[in-house]
Structures are given as C-alpha cells and as structure tokens.
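Researcher: We're teaching a course module on how sequence relates to structure. For the next exercise, students receive a sequence and then see the predicted structure as tokens, so they can try to spot secondary structure elements on their own. Here is the exercise chain.
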Amino acid sequence: MHLINKNLALALSLQGRIKIEERDYDAASESFRKAISLDAGNPLLLLWDAYANYLKIEFSSGLKDEKYQERIASITRSLERAAKLSEKHGKKIRPHILYFLGYFYYKGKDIFTAKQRFTECIKECITLKKLKGQMEPSTSELLDSARELLDNIWTYQIRPPLWRWWWDSPLDNQRRRATFVTLSLFIFALLLLHPFISARFDSLHINWALYGLFVVLLLIILASPSIERIRTRDIEVEMHSPPPFEPILSPTIIEQRIEEMTKRYSEPELPR
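Model: And here is the predicted structure for the students to work with:
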C-alpha cells in the first residue's frame, strides 16, 4: 500500500507539472496537495506546490501589496515545512530549499530572516562538500549565488554599523575580523608614533604629506563598507552600489532548479 501511494503521488505530481505548463495554477496546486497527502514525507512535492502558488500570484493582475505579502508568507510556510522534512529526508536538496526560503523571505520584506536562511544555505553547501570531498556543479553555483545575495542583504539592506560589518559579518567572518583588527592596530600605531618620530629622529627625513596620505588611505579602506562615493572638487569616485537582487531568481530559474532536484533526488518510480 505504501508503494502504491508513492507511485500515485508521483503520478499526481506529474499531472500538476503538466497543469503548470498549461498555466492552470489552481489545478496544479490541487494535484500537488493530493500528492502531498499520499506522500507527506516528500519535500519535493511541497516545493512544486509552492512554485505553483508563486506563479499564481506573480501572474495575477490587480493583486494588492497586502494580499501579495500574505501569499508570499503562505509560500514561505510551505517551504519551511519542506526544509524541516529535508533534515531527515533529502539532505542533498536542503541547501536549495534554504536558498528559496532566503529569496522568498526577502520578497516578503523580512530581510533578517532572509539573511539567516542564506547563511544556513551556505553552511549546508560547505557541509556537503566536506562529506563528499568535492562539490557538485549545481551546489557550487548555488553557493556562489547565496554568498552574493547574502552580501547584498548584509551590506545594502541591513546596513550595519561599520564595526559590525567587519566584526559580525555572516561572510568570511574570521578573515574580516582579522582584517579589521590589523588595520585598526596599524592605523593606531601610525598615529601614536607620529609625534615620537618627529621628536626623537630629527635627522630622519620623512615626507609627512605622504605619511598622512597613507594614514588617510588606510582609514578609507577601513570605512569603505559604509562609503558609497568619495567626492572632491574635481572628481567623484563611486565606491560601490547595490547590485540588482530581484531578477536573479526568475520563475524560469526556480522551475529549472526544482526540475533538476526532482530528476536527481526523487526515489519513487512509476511501475512499468
């Protein structure tokens, strides 16, 4: 009976995907929900259902922002269920689910939870690499994208104070802390040594203009995460600007990734 239910769930899942191609998203979601009732432990079915509901709201006309946010919240709840199931069943797909969660929490304007989910996605990708000794191309691509989006959220959306950007960064935490400490101590040492050099080494010829310029340059590097542009009388230098976020995960890309996960990680097969 268990095998029959799984095979029937797979047939309903295929039916739902056909309905997506026909743009009948209500019927697609109904098929996926029936499949979920037969194979409740399969996180891939929850992914397909979330995708069908996402397409429905994306292509609905006249949907007010409040209603849109409610639907996005419903999708994130489904994805959270899928993430919970993937802890025991389908750990290979867990990083992908966490990536989707980060994206949809961002669309739901919950940037702090989005940051948390992208951070978890990165950790899961690294864990998979350690277990296997190497990283699959799809996982490597996912890791790069998650790191890019997490950096976008941390730097341009959350906009933490300067010291927190260096000290509490969710990316390359140890390296950034070491850089922050090194730069701070070096600048402090240069400022502290300045009067002693002048007083004790009269014969030492130092270009104080270059000395000061070097200190200013180090200060600019230390403050660079919070400086968007440097403007003088003659020039204006753009330090950094927020990279685009929204276009990165289009409905087409979501479908491709779920399709790939379904082919690679789903276990049940229709009887011949």
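Model: If you want an answer key for the exercise: Confidence is low (pLDDT under 50) at residues 229-239, 267-272. Residues 162-238 form one domain.
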